[in-house]
Design brief:
Elements: H1 2-6, H2 12-49, H3 63-85, H4 98-124, H5 127-133, H6 136-161
Helix pairs in contact: 3-4
């Protein structure tokens, strides 16, 4: 998100306002409590099963989801809003200022994040069934796709530019 906001020099103060003032503090609190919950869950499982080989699963921010929100949700909204302000485009929302554009993009991204969480919780209700029905290779396919996308795309481009 910071890179999207830094694309225009006028957005730099807003970048600090949103990223440093809202996103990072919320992410820090979320990570703290989530990791504390997983540590408690690991200790609970260790005590319940009488085992000493239990490890708590670390919790983190999903980078692919973050990039998807930045480039698929926030960037188009900001591009449309900035074009409208510059008089070079049309918009369904009449943006009055740069502050309004960034604020609107942030609000829509937050709403999208909440909706994504609700969908994840609903899908979790059928998780055990999916695990039984779908083969393990099918469950690993999204992980492999993310790996190929973020680790291999640059090299694929170089290979296709200069084939043997």
């Amino acid at each position: 998100m910071r890179n999207v906001l830094q694309a225009n020099d006028t957005l730099e103060p807003l970048c600090d306002k949103i990223i440093l003032g809202r996103v990072l503090p919320a992410a820090g609190v979320g990570l703290l409590f989530s990791n504390m919950f997983y540590a408690w869950l690991g200790a609970w499982l260790m005590k319940r099963e009488g085992r000493r080989d239990v490890c708590a699963m670390p919790f983190g921010i999903s980078s692919p989801a973050g990039f998807a929100f930045i480039f698929s949700i926030m960037a188009p909204i900001m591009g449309e809003g900035m074009a409208f302000i510059a008089g070079k485009g049309e918009s369904t929302v009449k943006y009055a200022s740069v502050n309004k554009v960034v604020e609107e993009a942030w609000k829509i991204a937050v709403l999208g994040n909440i909706l994504g969480g609700v969908i994840s919780m609903c899908v979790a209700l059928v998780g055990n069934y999916v695990e039984k029905v779908v083969p393990p290779a099918g469950l690993m396919t999204p992980l492999a796709a993310i790996g190929l996308t973020w680790l291999g795309v640059e090299w694929f481009g170089k290979i296709f530019l200069a084939p043997l």
